[in-house]
Design brief:
This protein is an alpha/beta fold. Helix content is 50%, strand content 15%. The chain contains 10 helices and 6 strands, in the order αβαββαββαβαααααα. The protein has a 6-stranded mixed beta sheet, with helices on both faces. α7 packs across α8 and α9 crosses α10. 29% of the residues are buried.
């Protein structure tokens, strides 16, 4: 719909257009059989809980890309993932801001939390919504940066938080240093829980063998150096990794090893059993 040049009328059209796009987006997602959370705004508290809050600090006024604003502190039901209004409840306030913008007034800075490269609105949801509707690419914001134990990379919808949460729990149970942790990747979130149990069982056997207590940091470090890396190298040489990640190959074959051999050793005999087993 072309602009009329009258701020009040154009603001009404802006709101109706944004509402229509929100409805059409949900319909398209339903037709494509996408998960229900694809168009949902990300809840800040759940994201931080999944990643593990460490600290926060005020960064002051900054220019923030609108496309990086993906979540909210307390307005998760009023707007969709692209901050389009999901109902007519806020229409009057929304149109008042749009009119001001169309008259050339500046949008006051919003307040956001930053987690990695993602931003979550603390105050200013309607301003973000109007900025999106009017085609802006950036917005001024007072930024508070929140650091977390697990990085926010890869979070695009609410369902991704399950993987992040299980990875954080894995790090609690298997406290590997950063470079080592970066090599532990799985495509199925629950594999992190299974891998945690595998490491803890290995650590228990190690303590029995050495007849002394070892803390989690020591078990994690020794498991990675004495078990995981040597096994992964051997599996790669035997061409037993396939399309899995290294961690998935280790986890799968460790289970197969025990089922086939009822032992926890690694040698050529075990490899031959695994190679001939149709389940690998």
């Amino acid at each position: 719909m072309a602009d009329t040049g009258f701020p009040a009328t154009d603001a009404e059209h802006d709101f109706l257009r944004a509402r229509r796009r929100a409805v059409l987006s949900r319909l398209a997602a339903w037709l494509r059989r996408e998960p229900d959370d694809v168009s949902e705004i990300l809840p800040f508290d759940e994201v931080v809980a999944a990643l593990g809050r460490v600290a926060e600090r005020r960064l002051g006024l900054q220019v923030v890309p609108l496309e990086s604003i993906v979540g909210s502190v307390d307005r998760t039901r009023d707007f969709d993932r692209w901050f389009r209004p999901r109902s007519g409840r806020s229409r009057e306030r929304w149109e008042r801001l749009a009119r001001a913008q169309r008259r050339g007034e500046a949008i006051p800075p919003i307040d956001v939390y930053r987690v990695g490269e993602l931003h979550f609105v603390k105050d200013g949801h309607h301003r973000v919504s109007v900025a999106h509707a009017l085609g802006f690419r950036t917005i001024d914001a007072f930024v508070t940066e929140v650091t977390t134990r697990i990085d926010a990379t890869g979070i695009s919808r609410r369902g991704d938080l399950i993987t992040k949460d299980l990875r954080r729990v894995f790090l609690d149970r298997v406290p590997l240093p950063g470079p080592a942790l970066a090599t532990i990747l799985v495509t199925t979130a629950w594999s992190y829980a299974e891998l945690s149990e595998e490491v803890e069982a290995w650590g228990f056997r190690l303590m029995q063998q050495e007849r002394r207590f070892l803390d989690r940091e020591t078990v994690a470090r020794r498991w990675y150096a004495e078990e995981y890396r040597p096994v992964v190298r051997m599996l790669a040489q035997a061409d037993l990794i396939g399309e899995r990640t290294e961690a998935e190959a280790y986890l799968h074959l460790a289970g197969q090893r025990y089922r086939l051999m009822r032992t926890h050793r690694w040698d050529d005999e075990v490899i031959e059993h695994l190679r001939s087993d149709p389940g690998h």
